[in-house]
Specification:
By secondary structure, the protein is α+β, with helices and mostly antiparallel strands. The protein folds into two domains: about 10-45, no CATH class; about 55-90, no CATH class. The protein is built from two helices and three strands. It has helices at about 20-25, 30-40, and strands spanning about 65-70, 75-85, 85-90. It has a three-stranded antiparallel sheet with strand order 1-2-3, with no helix packed on it. Helix 1 (about 20-25) packs antiparallel against helix 2 (about 30-40). The longest helix is centred in the middle third of the chain and has 11 residues, at about 30-40. It is elongated.
Length: about 90
Amino acid sequence: MDRGPADLNPNPNAPEYLQPVREALFRDSINEAVSLLKKMQGPNSAIYQPLGNLMISQQLDGEVSNYERELNISTAVATTRFTVGGVNYSG
């Protein structure tokens, strides 16, 4: 059965590292756990890491109200909404 261009099981030996990773974590051996985790991962495992952080600073005149935060898992979009001085902000 052809599953397309992606190898859906790039590291068939990954399960053998799961218990050693757990044991290292329980011993607080973080460096050992990270090293073992790298053996579990397949190629391109860091492909979806964030590119960076965006910090926005605003000078708003008035009290913030109607503050909402939303995370839509289906679309991977985070939204913040609030009102200051009768103006609705969304981003």
